[in-house]
Design brief:
DNA binding, single chain, disordered N terminus, IS982 family transposase
C-alpha cells in the first residue's frame, strides 16, 4: 500500500548570531512588557535584554549544557548576573512561544502526544537526591530500561515536528493521566491524536471523544485483534516524535542543569523556543 510522504523539517537552527540578534530585537520590541522594558537601572546595562535572549538561544543551538562555561568563554557578564537577567526574561520567552503558536497553521495536521524524561541527577544518586524534593520523584525510563530521579515532560507535537505545548510532572506520573489537562491548556484545532501503548485505555478514549478528539494508539502484541488494528503507517508516523525529542535533547531540554524551579523552566522554554524557531525559519524561510 502506498502512503503519502510527509514533509519533515530538520529543526537545526541554521542562522548567524547577527541575524538571530536582529530577530530577538524585533521580538523584544513587539512582545516585551513595559515592566521589563522600563525596569529600574535598565539604561545602565552593558548588554541589552534582546542580546541576552539571543545568547540563550545561541547557547541552546550550540548544545552547551553548562551556563557557567558559556559565560566564561562567550558572554561579557558574570555567571550570577547572566542568570538573574535570563530569569527576568522568562515571561517574554513564554509570550514569544505562544505568539509563534498562533502564527503557525497546524490545521489539518495530525498531532502526536508523548513524553520524555528529564533526570536531575545520576541514577546512582536516585535515592539520596534532595533537590526538588517536593516536586520530583523516581520514574522509569523505558527506552534505556533504567530508573531516574527528576521530572517528566509531556508534549504535543504536529506530524511535521512543531511542538505546540507541554506540561511538566513528577517522573512517576502516567502519560495518560496528564493528557486531558494538556489538551485543555493547548486547545488544538486538530482533532486527530496519535499516542503509544502508554495511552491505551477505554476511559481516556471516552473522555477525549466527549471533548471532540479521536485518539489512535497501537494495541499491545498480546491484545485481541492487534495485527488487524495496528496500522504500520500510523505507527511509523507516531515514532517521528522520538526524532523530535532527540533534537530537543540536543537543545538541552533533557540535560537540564538548573537548580531552581524558575531556572529549570527558563532553560526548558529556551530549548523549545530554539527548536520551534528552527522549524519556522525552515518552513517559512
Amino acid at each position: 500500500m502506498n502512503y503519502p510522504k510527509l514533509k519533515r523539517f530538520s529543526h537545526h537552527l541554521q542562522v548567524s548570531f547577527s541575524r538571530l540578534n536582529i530577530i530577538c530585537r524585533t521580538w523584544y520590541k513587539l512582545y516585551a512588557s513595559d515592566e521589563i522594558k522600563h525596569r529600574r537601572n535598565i539604561a545602565q546595562c552593558k548588554v541589552s535584554d534582546s542580546s541576552i535572549l539571543a545568547m540563550l538561544i545561541w547557547q541552546a543551538s550550540l548544545g552547551i549544557e553548562s551556563q557557567r562555561r558559556f559565560c566564561e568563554h562567550l558572554v561579557n557578564l558574570s555567571h550570577s548576573r547572566f542568570n538573574r537577567r535570563t530569569r527576568m526574561l522568562l515571561p517574554l520567552i513564554y509570550r514569544i512561544r505562544h505568539v509563534l503558536n498562533e502564527e503557525v497553521d497546524l490545521s489539518g495536521d495530525i498531532l502526536i502526544i508523548d513524553s520524555f524524561p528529564v533526570p536531575v541527577c545520576r541514577p546512582v544518586r536516585n535515592c539520596q537526591a534532595k533537590i526538588f524534593s517536593d516536586y520530583a520523584n523516581i520514574g522509569y525510563k523505558a527506552t534505556k530500561k533504567t530508573f531516574y530521579y527528576g521530572f517528566k515532560v509531556h508534549a504535543i507535537v504536529s506530524d511535521d515536528g512543531y511542538l505546540l505545548d507541554y506540561a511538566i510532572t513528577k517522573a512517576s506520573v502516567n502519560d495518560a493521566r496528564e493528557t486531558i489537562e494538556l489538551l485543555v491548556n493547548a486547545q488544538p484545532k486538530n482533532r486527530y491524536l496519535l499516542g503509544d501503548e502508554g495511552y491505551v485505555g477505554k476511559d481516556l478514549h471516552h473522555q477525549l471523544k466527549k471533548m471532540g478528539y479521536i485518539l489512535w494508539t497501537p494495541y499491545r502484541k498480546n491484545m485481541k485483534n492487534a495485527k488487524k488494528h495496528n496500522n504500520h503507517y500510523l505507527m511509523a508516523l507516531r515514532r517521528t516524535i522520538e526524532s523530535d525529542f532527540s533534537l530537543l535533547t540536543y537543545y538541552n531540554a533533557e540535560n537540564n542543569r538548573a537548580r531552581s524551579l524558575t531556572g529549570f523552566q527558563e532553560r526548558l522554554e529556551v530549548a523549545i523556543l530554539a527548536y520551534n524557531m528552527a522549524y519556522c525559519l525552515e518552513r517559512f524561510n
